[in-house]
Specification:
Elements: E1 13-16, E2 20-21, E3 34-36, E4 41-50, E5 55-61, E6 66-69, E7 74-76
Antiparallel strand pairs: 1-4, 1-7, 2-3, 4-5, 5-6
Keywords: Nitrogen fixation
Protein name: Nitrogen fixation protein NifZ
Family: Belongs to the NifZ family.
């Protein structure tokens, strides 16, 4: 099985494509608490790979938290034309 290449790159501005809730990965925050609303801006701070699922995994800094996200949870941020 070939390794799936990431759609996004380190440093890229992205938006949350859907509401993002705590799935238990932030133990200091209540589980199922809404962390980032759909459309919330973030920046890719690391790109990794889940070997078993063969998918890219992204660490995204949303300002309120750094969250691990899959591609379907993100959308590219459209930069304003000057």
């Amino acid at each position: 099985m070939e390794r799936r290449e990431p759609k996004y790159r380190w440093g890229q501005a992205v938006l949350a494509a859907e509401d993002l809730y705590n799935d238990g990965s932030l133990p200091e925050v209540a589980e199922d608490l809404l962390l980032v609303v759909a459309g919330g801006p973030g920046e890719i701070v690391q790109v990794g790979h889940h070997a078993e699922a063969n998918v890219p995994v992204y660490l995204v800094d949303f300002g309120v938290a750094v969250l691990g996200c899959l591609e379907e949870e993100l959308a590219p941020a459209v930069e304003a034309l000057a």
